[in-house]
Design a protein that fits this description.
Blueprint: H1 3-9, H2 13-21, H3 27-42, H4 46-57, E1 60-61, H5 62-69, H6 73-85, E2 89-94, E3 97-102, H7 105-121
């Protein structure tokens, strides 16, 4: 009798085999992984990646991002709303303008590493 058929004959062997193929993730980690996935989705658009790269260099207001990226102001504002909702950027009002900055450097590293990875693969 082969090992595979011996394992299949044992109660719960197939379930144990499938469990071994899945990474062990405690319940609380599932929520963390879900949030990480949402964060990565927020970073997934090319314009949002470009915004993060711009904000890595310096805090910027909308019109500076419009000029730097050659993208229409309503589109920049829409992407900033997505990034803000995801906790990637925050805005601070200064007079008539809102200046945007990255919440932390971790996010810039994710984007920079992804861009560098693509450049190396090309």
């Amino acid at each position: 009798m082969s090992t595979a058929s011996q394992d299949a004959a044992l109660p719960g062997a197939a379930e144990h085999e499938h469990a071994a193929l899945r990474p062990h993730t405690p319940r609380q980690a599932v929520a963390t992984l879900t949030e990480a996935g949402e964060l990565l989705r927020a970073l997934a658009a090319p314009v949002r990646i470009a915004i993060v790269l711009q904000l890595q260099d310096a805090d910027r207001c909308v019109h500076e991002l419009v000029d730097a990226l050659a993208v229409a102001q309503p589109l920049i504002s829409q992407h900033l709303r997505v990034l803000k909702a995801a906790g990637v950027v925050r805005g601070e009002r200064r007079g008539r303008e809102v200046v945007y900055r990255l919440v932390d450097d971790h996010l810039a590293h994710i984007v920079v590493d992804a861009v560098e990875h693509v450049k190396e693969s090309a």
